[in-house]
Structure to design on (166 residues):
């Protein structure tokens, strides 16, 4: 499937129409409408939105990106061996959603690819071992698994992708 034509991914700004966004998950809709801008202002995370050239204020999808650590004991045994015995630095893709009317067009894949690209770029400046995601449900978990993410042992909804595997 192809993503909507003429779309772009950019940082969330005041111009973007957060109130009109609907993806089918009340928690994700509420986050974008009520908390995302505050998190960005407080430097808790960065939120990126997909818009179109024809409707630059409309939001087709979004994701949030921040830093986190992975407890070494959460990693599968094969991943632990070469790592130091302290929390491992990672990037957290905390939320990813696509608006109802844009679902099924490959936009989720493009948002994920953009998050990976940004994470790799930052990893050239600071240490980041993996990209971590929180899967909101089994459908989301299957999506991330399809792109190579593996579950962390202690967290059933948390998945990771070592950057060296990219």
């Amino acid at each position: 499937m192809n993503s909507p034509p003429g779309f772009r991914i950019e940082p969330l700004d005041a111009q973007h129409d957060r109130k009109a966004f609907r993806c089918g998950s009340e928690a994700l809709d509420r986050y974008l409408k009520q908390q995302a801008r505050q998190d960005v202002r407080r430097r808790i995370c960065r939120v990126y939105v997909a818009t179109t050239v024809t409707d630059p204020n409309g939001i087709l999808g979004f994701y949030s990106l921040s830093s986190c650590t992975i407890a070494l004991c959460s990693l599968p045994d094969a991943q632990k061996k070469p790592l130091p015995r302290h929390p491992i630095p990672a990037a957290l893709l905390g939320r990813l959603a696509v608006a109802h009317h844009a679902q099924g067009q490959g936009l989720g894949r493009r948002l994920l690819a953009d998050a990976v690209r940004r994470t790799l770029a930052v990893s050239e400046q600071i240490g980041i071992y993996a990209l971590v995601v929180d899967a909101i449900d089994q459908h989301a978990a299957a999506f991330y698994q399809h792109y190579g993410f593996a579950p962390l042992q202690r967290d059933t909804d948390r998945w990771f992708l070592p950057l060296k595997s990219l």
Summary: The mean pLDDT is 92. Residues 107-123 form the longest helix (17 residues). The radius of gyration is 16 Å. The helical segments are 26-41, 77-80, 107-123, 138-146.
